[in-house]
Amino acid sequence: MESIDGGVNRPMILKVDKLTVHYGAIQALRGISFEVQQGEIITLIGSNGAGKTTTLHGISNIIKKTAGTVIFDGHDITALPPDRIVATGLVHVPEGRRIFANLTVRDNLEMGAYTRRDHAGIKADMENVFGLFPRLKERIRQTAGTLSGGEQQMLAMGRALMAKPRLLLMDEPSMGLAPILVDEIFSIIRRINESGTTILLVEQNAFKALGIAGRAYILETGEIVKTGPAAELMKDDSVKAAYLGG
To answer: pTM score, two decimals?
Structure first.
């Protein structure tokens, strides 16, 4: 069978169906539905206020949903509390990093593994994180709040990886970073995916996001208005005009 991005169909790992979210009287998400296949990088593209972050928060149950269901790995996680969702293998790297600023790099990474009891596996995964982010190993005893913005983003990603995710939700990983660091972060995202982790990416830098993703969904005012292979959407005139500076 052929998938919609032209590859071989893979098992579906995430199904979001008619997700609806209100902030008071404001409807932030208007019954959006989409799917993520195992092993993919999927990106959500949209302007500020389109509902991208709200979508991730709804999946993680960080915010209360008005309606809709979220199925992860064949199980309904719609009503699970966020900590239980992490334990299923769905892990969120939030916008703004949200590291524990007063703790050391090591402590932050260990906090990422709080749902686990496999001590040998935790130790091995910490070494894997240091393989992806050598600077974190150099700063292992440093207080996280004293790290640079790029290093804090690396720490947020590393902490999430310590939870051993099967699906990683990433919200604006390049926000506030210098261009050379943006390139490095996206290279690492690709490596994480190549190691077997599925990624759902929200990113303001649409050019970078479409360059790394297999498929994309375009969000406008809480609705999905366009979807397709990322490479094709990069050539779409309306997408270029709205999100790619041309």
So the answer is: 0.92
